[in-house]
Fold this protein.
Amino acid sequence: MRMSDAGADPAAVLTARIARKVYRSARSEPVEAVRDLAFAIAPGEVVCLIGPSGAGKTTTLRILLGLDRDYEGSVEPDPRGGAGIGMVFQDPRLLPWRTVEQNVRLALPRERRGRDLDALFEHLALTPWRGRFPGALSLGMQRRVALARALADDPRLLILDEPFVSLDDAAAASLRGLVVDTVDRLGMSVLMVTHNVAEALEIADRLLLLSPRPASLVATVPLALPRRERGRAFAEATRRDLARLYPGVIAD
Amino acid sequence: MAVAARLASLLILLALWQLAATLADTRTLPSPSAVAAFVLREIQTGGMLFNVGVTLARVAVSFVIAMSLGLVLGVLLGRSRVADRALDTPLLVVLNTPALVITVLAYVWLGLTETAAIVAVALNKLPNVAVIMREGARSLDPGLEEMARTYRFDRRTWIAHVLVPQLQPFAVAAARSGISLAWKIVLVVELIGRPNGVGFAINYYFQLFDVTAVIGYSLVFMTVMLAIDTLVLQPLDAHVRRWR
C-alpha cells in the first residue's frame, strides 16, 4: 500500500499515516517500532489490527490516542482536539477509589457529566453495580465498565486493546456479544487490536495484518460475509487461507 | 476479643509494676496507685490541664505547618526532577541533623521564644513528611495518567479524582508518623527553652527528683497522643482505604 492511499477518503473517521516510530534511549540501541503503517477507518467499519506479540500494536495505539507524539507521520483528526474516540484499555484502568458510575461520568466533559446513563448501564448489565467500587468486580465486569466509559460520550470510533484477553471463555463470549451488539445498534466504527485471529474473524469487517517489529502493514483482508452468516466453517477456512498466505503473521 | 487481649495485657503490666514497686520499696520506683494519686491531685490544681494543653497547642501548630509545607515540597520533589536534584541534599542534611541540634540552633537564632519552639518542631518533622510524600508522588500510576489524558480530564478533575486519591494514603502515613515524632520532639524543645508545657514539667520534677510526677506526666501525655491516633488518625486511615 502506498502512503498516499490512506489519506484519500475524506469521510474516514480516522486516518493514520505513521512513517516511522523509533524508541531512543541513552542506554541501548534505538529500536524501530513502526515503519510505514498507514490505514483509514470508514464510518461504521469494524477493523481488527492483528499482529504478533511485541509487534508495536500498543505503540501504534498510543500514537492514535495522542499519548505519543514523538513519531514521523500524522493522525487525522488530531486526537488532542477531541476526535470522538472512546478507548477501552487492556487493563481496564478504572479509578479504584471511585464508584462504577463515577468512573463513567468523570470521563465525560464537565457539561455532559449529568446526562442520563440509565440505558447505557442497563444495556451493559451494569445497573446493579453502579454504586460499587471497581475492586469488587471481576475482570470481565471491569472491562464492561471500561466499555461503558468509552461509550458514554457517543464516540465516533471505539478503540479496543485486546479486550477479551485473560477472560474465561464464558466472560469473553458475553463481552464479545456485547461489543458486537453495541456496534450493530449504535453504528460507530471500531478498531480492535488483537492477536487472536478467531476473535477477529468473528467480528471484523476488515483485517489489518501487521508484520513483526518494526510494525508495518503486510496485508489488508476484507471480510465480505456478513457477521451473522459466519460460522465455524468460514472461520476455519479463512484462518487456514491466511496462515498459508501470511505464515509470519498468522500461525497455523 | 482484640480489645479484651489488650486490656488483659495492660492489667498484667500494671500488676507487675505494682509488684515490683512493692518489692523494691524505693522513692525511684513509685507504685501505680501513687502515680494515679499524683495525676488526680495535679488535675485538681489545674497544673496538668494547663501544661498538657500548652504542649498540645504546640504540637498542633507545628504539625499543621510541617504537614502543609511537607506536602507541597514532597509532591514538588516527586514530580519535578530538577527540584529533586536541587533539594535532595539539603533535605538529607536536615533529615540527618539531630533534633537536639535543630532545637538549640533555633533558640540561638530566634531567641527563647514560642516562635523558635514551633519552628524547631516543624523543622524536625518537615523532611519526614516531604520524603514520604515524594514517594507518593513518584509512584503515581502511569496507566491512570494515560487514561486521564485519553479522556481529556481537565485539571480540576485530574487533581480531585486522580492525583489526590493516590496521595491520600501517603499523607495519612505521614500524619501518623509525623504526630508521634512531633510530640516526642516538642517535649525536648520545652525542656530546653520554655517556661511551661509537659516537657517543662518533667524537667522541673526531675530537678526535684520526683519520679512519681515524671511518670505521671508522661503517662497522661502518652494517653492523650494515643487517643488522638486511635480516635482521629486511624479512622481517617480506614476512610481513605475504604475502596480497597
